[in-house]
Specification:
heterodimer; A: alpha+beta; hypothetical protein PF0899 fold; 6 strands; 23% helix; B: alpha/beta; 8-stranded mixed sheet; 9 helices; globular
Chain lengths: 111, 283
């Protein structure tokens, strides 16, 4: 809920009172946040704000890691980082994203 | 991310100072005057389409908005926790400038965080001032225990919240006013999930686990153990009575973070506390 509230706070802060039609997020599979939980919280968190009724679109990005031993890059489903070559000297290169990528605001007539 | 506890209900957060001295000093903590506008992206109201705005004149009928409407896209590409993380960095700088190492202590409820602090305060009395920020949903119990042990403490009650965040810690530091060169412990709300995601401006993160909880905690709560700089295994005096394999705990914790330090100790019996004090001393 606190994470979803942070999304709402940021969007309210940046949209200067404009009505928001939709919000796009990028949530990595290794970020520690459950996308379905955010969807559940979104309606509650947006109630009474310019985001009320807005769509929440979440792009879930897969985990990728790079091995320092064999220099290979591979998919990771969880935080147990072990390269197929057997090395544990591995760093995460993708999957920890927790971003608001864009917002669609309802356009007002040009003055 | 918790659905049941509804963490983040700001109206219920209370900061209580248990040391009269700190209250008289007034808040001198890391006041942040930016209030989340640090980026200064002034998106003009005059419709001049600064970078990041694109128009989409295809009629889009967003759900719930009733009618087809033109929309304008604002590209943000900003981290969701950016505001918390900015404030955490602000806290970290404030503490660093005053040479105050801050230790974020995290664990399940009942692992012995407060007992470890009581014993640590007793040990360090006379050598280094210790201050404690206590996080719990309700009650002043822990802050009172810390004060009785001889250190200054503020209690942050998070109400429905299940973790401390950077604004709470900023307010608590302001109320506590730790002196230069002191050691600050931030005892997080007992929870192995949400506290892992929230930087509060600490220098190091310590996860405490007790042998009664099971040796498979690292893989059950990987985000917490990936974030840890040190894992303290407490209640080793109970090892003869429980099925807890310390080697398995080591293996699991290191599969998540190969260079994590692990100290097994017993607060109650005092076993191996020297390793903990040496670790603190090196901060």
């Amino acid at each position: 809920m606190a994470i979803t509230q942070s999304v709402v706070d940021m969007v309210v802060d940046r949209t200067a009172g404009r009505r928001v039609a939709s919000v796009q997020l990028q949530v990595g599979k290794l970020a520690g946040v459950v996308a379905d939980a955010m969807r559940f919280c979104f309606e509650l968190a947006t109630s009474g704000t310019v985001l009320e009724g807005a769509r929440l679109e979440i792009e879930e990005t897969p985990g990728r890691a790079a091995c320092r031993a064999c220099r290979d890059e591979f998919d990771v489903a969880d935080l147990v980082l072990l390269c197929p070559c057997g090395s544990a000297d591995v760093r995460i290169v993708a999957g920890r994203e927790l971003l608001v990528t864009s917002v669609q605001m309802v356009e007002e007539p040009c003055a | 991310m918790c659905l049941t506890c509804g963490c983040g209900d700001e109206e219920n957060i209370r900061v209580t100072t248990l040391d009269p001295r700190a209250a008289e000093d007034g808040p001198s903590g890391p006041a942040d005057h930016g209030h989340g506008h640090a980026h200064g992206h002034g998106h003009g109201h005059g419709h001049d389409h600064p970078d990041g705005h694109t128009h989409d004149h295809d009629a889009v009928g967003p759900d719930g908005l009733g009618e087809a409407a033109h929309t304008e896209t604002l590209v943000l590409s900003e981290r969701i926790l950016a505001k918390n993380d900015r404030l955490a960095e602000h806290n970290r700088n404030w503490l660093r400038e005053r040479n105050i190492p801050a230790v974020n202590l995290m664990s399940s409820p009942g692992s012995g965080k407060t007992s470890l602090l009581e014993r640590t305060i007793a040990e360090l009395t006379g050598t280094r001032e210790v201050c404690v920020i206590e996080g719990d949903q309700e009650t002043l119990f822990d802050a009172e225990r810390i004060r009785t042990a001889g250190a200054r403490a503020v209690q942050v009650n998070t109400g429905a919240g299940c973790h401390l965040d950077a604004p709470m810690v900023r307010d608590a530091i302001g109320a506590l006013a730790p002196s230069e060169g002191s050691l600050l412990f931030i005892e997080n709300v007992g929870n192995l999930v949400c506290p892992a995601l929230f930087d509060v401006g600490e220098q190091v993160k310590v996860v405490v686990i007790s042998v009664t909880e099971g040796d498979d905690k690292p893989l059950k709560y990987p985000h917490m153990f990936t974030a840890a700089d040190l894992v303290v295994v407490n209640k080793t005096d109970l090892l003869p009575y429980v099925d807890f394999d310390i080697a398995k705990l080591h293996q699991q914790a290191r599969s998540l973070k190969p260079d994590v330090e692990i100290i097994a100790l017993s607060v109650r019996h005092g076993d191996n506390l020297d390793a903990w004090y040496a670790w603190l001393h090196a901060l």
